[in-house]
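Postdoc handover notes: sequence design on the structure in folder B. Input tokens:
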């Protein structure tokens, strides 16, 4: 499966890449994460593990703006092409509107304030974190890729969906509705080996390991069908991979993968609210109702 990392997972992966790039030429060994908080170390382990086990990662900044199939919206029955830049500006406008509505619980606001010590963004930047998540949703929707989140960012999208419906907010583009995504043990979840890559170089090394490749191949089934027994797929894949690889066999079994095909929020549904807030004239925008594939990676140590 092709993945789009979202929220804190994307941020942790991006910062690790910048951290390692800044170390090139200074030492033979890339920096591992000695100054990262425990939360961001965990975010990177999850992001790195799923990066190893995927076919590839979407870069939101590299979505092909010339492909009309990726940028179309229907307005008043007409097909309208929109640039990536325009949609990103819409995302920021929508973000500020949502934040104004005081949509989030204190717990979610606290997790949105989390950041790595070397993150150049200002501390407590809730609007910027929410804007990142919304743009990651946009990239996943436009490329039909799998959106991968930490559980705290899943909860942000749950509260975002509730805000949209409660306040009648028009949407600039498709956003997954995760309010019905299972959060407990079910056929939709199971254990994933935490490969605990130490840095981006380690991610690349693991991707070339034959046993890890075989593990990854078995996990591709997660994105093939909404009816798949995810628990059985994960259990079988992990068992066979453990037989082939000492690293996988010794990896902590402390990641829970939850697989979900999410309905997307649509202005057709939202506009049924009596007082639709639509100063940007988004209400007539329509988009495919095709479900979005979402994976959540959680840890038993905390919701983050």
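Designed sequence:
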């Amino acid at each position: 499966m092709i993945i789009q990392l979202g929220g804190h997972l994307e941020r942790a992966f991006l910062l690790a890449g910048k951290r390692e790039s800044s170390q090139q030429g200074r030492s033979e060994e890339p920096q591992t994460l000695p100054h990262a908080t425990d939360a961001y170390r965990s975010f990177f382990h999850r992001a790195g593990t799923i990066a190893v086990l995927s076919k590839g990662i979407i870069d939101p900044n590299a979505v092909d703006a010339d492909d009309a199939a990726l940028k179309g919206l229907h307005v008043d029955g007409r097909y309208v092409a929109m640039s990536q830049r325009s949609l990103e500006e819409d995302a920021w406008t929508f973000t500020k509107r949502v934040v104004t509505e005081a949509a989030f619980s204190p717990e979610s606001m606290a997790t949105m304030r989390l950041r790595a010590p070397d993150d150049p963004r200002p501390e407590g930047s809730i609007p910027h974190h929410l804007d990142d998540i919304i743009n990651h949703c946009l990239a996943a929707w436009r490329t039909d890729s799998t959106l991968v989140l930490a559980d705290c960012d899943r909860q942000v999208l749950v509260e975002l969906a509730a805000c949209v419906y409660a306040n009648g907010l028009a949407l600039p583009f498709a956003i997954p509705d995760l309010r019905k995504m299972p959060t407990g043990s079910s056929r939709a979840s199971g254990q994933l080996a935490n490969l605990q890559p130490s840095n981006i170089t380690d991610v690349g090394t693991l991707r070339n390991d034959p046993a890890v490749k075989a593990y990854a191949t078995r996990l591709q089934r997660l994105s093939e069908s909404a009816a798949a027994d995810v628990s059985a797929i994960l259990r079988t894949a992990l068992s066979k991979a453990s037989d082939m690889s000492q690293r996988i066999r010794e990896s902590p079994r402390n990641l829970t993968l939850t697989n979900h095909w999410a309905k997307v929020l649509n202005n057709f549904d939202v506009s049924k609210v009596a007082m639709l807030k639509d100063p940007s004239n988004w209400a007539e925008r329509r988009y495919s109702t095709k479900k979005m594939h979402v994976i959540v990676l959680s840890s038993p140590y905390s919701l983050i």
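Context for whoever picks this up: The two ends are 24 Å apart (CA to CA). Don't rerun without checking with the PI first.
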